[in-house]
Amino acid sequence: MRLAEIFERVVGPDAPVGFRAYDGSTAGDPDSDTTLVVRSPVALNYIAQAPGALGLTRAYVSGHLDLEGDMYTALKRMADLVFDDGLRLSPLELARIAAGIGWVKFVNRVPPPPQEMRRTRLSGRGTRHSKGRDAEVIHHHYDVSNAFYELVLGPSMTYTCAVFPSEDATLEQAQFDKYDLVARKLDLQPGMRLLDVGCGWGGMVRHAAKEYGVKALGVTLSKEQAEWASKRIAQEGLSDLAEVRHMDYRDVPDEFYDRVSSIGLTEHIGKKNVPDYFAGLYSKLKPGGRLLNHCITRPRNDLPAMVPGGVINRYVFPDGELEGPGWLQAQMNDAGFEIRHQENLREHYALTLRHWCANLERNWDTAVREVGEGTARVWRLYMAGCILGFEKDVVQLHQILGVKLDGTDAHMPLRPSFS
């Protein structure tokens, strides 16, 4: 049985992409600018072992399945044909396919690519969201290579959703505007103390110090992020105001801060830890202090927080959990915060990802030399898929502003302007 015939059985004869296989067979749209290429039988092994997105990801990351053309374009065209529910074939049809191409090729087990986070590696680090296991998860994703992140993220070294004043704004302008939006929501003033938990490469810390004269402390579980941020702070002459420490957010000393920002950390801490997380941040704030929580969310509160064994969980954010915005807001409220503002920046994250994807493609050869082709492929696939996720409202991005009341005074203007 030719592989093109299998492709047509699975997706139908009118697939909006081309198809080519190592056996010389072709299918799909011959004039398409995107073509799926099966380079070896190992791709079939992966898909047979894990029918659906995981098997396809393993085959692509390992290079046995390839795509000629733009990844986002191909994913968008195939969105209605994605195999998330498994190959659309009956067990009898699967048996016929296996017999047609050879049982050995079809069922021979092959190990996942090394870029996949194995459960045994995580289980050896403790229970989910313990300090040791969280450190390993952060190391897996964020300690890839600072040089690689510079290629993808650009000069701002900011790995969170930007805020675009217009669709044609540059990524650097949009990242500056995101930090400034956070700063204005927090009403940063000279001399204030800011705690930025999950600070990444120190973007918010440096912005607060440079633009607002704030004394800012950032903490991150990534050693490479902390080292990069500390060097940049020194280079920019901000050492008297800004500091980044390699530290778990749970180990931040119990001091009082005027403001707290949490930009892209809530996704990593686990649903069961969220109440204690917000309670801990509340306890570190002075009366009248503010918290701005910025994180990826699920569009509904009743959706599961994570998909165990899914592609994102295995390749990108092991142990990552996304909550609904209403649930997160309730947890902030129950921790004592008065909720003063909330907004969804979903479309902005799709635009941000487009810029990151363009950066990766523009610097592809350098990126491959830096981290290897398998890791670069993970990023190409994951970021293109995330654009689609935000566009189709599979995921969202919310900022929620809370105030620790000073008695009954929120120290807020009657009509704040957050543009």
Automatic annotation (TrEMBL):
Key words of the record: Lipid metabolism, Methyltransferase, S-adenosyl-L-methionine, Transferase
Keyword Methyltransferase: yes
CDD domains: AdoMet_MTases (cd02440)
Entry coiled-coil feature ranges: none
Domain of life: Bacteria
UniProt family annotation: Belongs to the CFA/CMAS family.
The protein, known as: Cyclopropane-fatty-acyl-phospholipid synthase
Organism of provenance: Nocardiopsis suaedae
